[in-house]
Amino acid sequence: MQTAARLRFSAEHYLAWEATQAEKHEFVAGEVFAMLGARQDHVIVSGNIFAALKQRLRGTPCRAYVADMKLKVEAADAFFYPDVMVSCHPEDRKSEQFISNPTLIVEVLSDSTANYDRGGKFVAYRKLDSLKEYLVVDIEARRVECFRRTADNDWLLHDYVGEADCDLSSLNIRLPMADIFEDIEAV
User: Fold this and answer.
1) Most buried by CB count within 10 Å: which residue of 53, 122, 139, 163?
2) pLDDT confidence bin for 7, thresholds 50/70/90
3) Which of 66, 61, 36, 39 is nearest to 51 (CA)?
């Protein structure tokens, strides 16, 4: 994440300003950060996950969203653009600019964001009471790390590699690893 000329805003001013921008910016506690463009593999994997979720969620109250939808994390005074997220909350269906109650968030790692996706961003995401699972997708390692919230509000890691299906218990669906990494060249 790169800073956008160290601009400082309130959340309301950020939303108004962001609506006029050609590029996307995330907002954290008054600071605005420009979103960098993604590599082709990142876009393909994000698209694969979105398409698989959309297909499996048909006929349910849940909706999958791709990178252009903002996520509001009020407890962190932040707005993010996750690669993919799913919300089953009726209030999110009414919102035009952002959702606030995701069940699942997916971040596809890149060299420039990996530490933040696993660190500060995950700290903010854990403040969302609605969030049940957080997927971190490592394209290079062909690995999906699924952090699942337990009944005690702890986060348990389920590590998926190889041919195993990625189990998303919060949505009662499974995503085959072959679907997630479809069209990605072997390294």
Assistant:
1) 53
2) low
3) 66
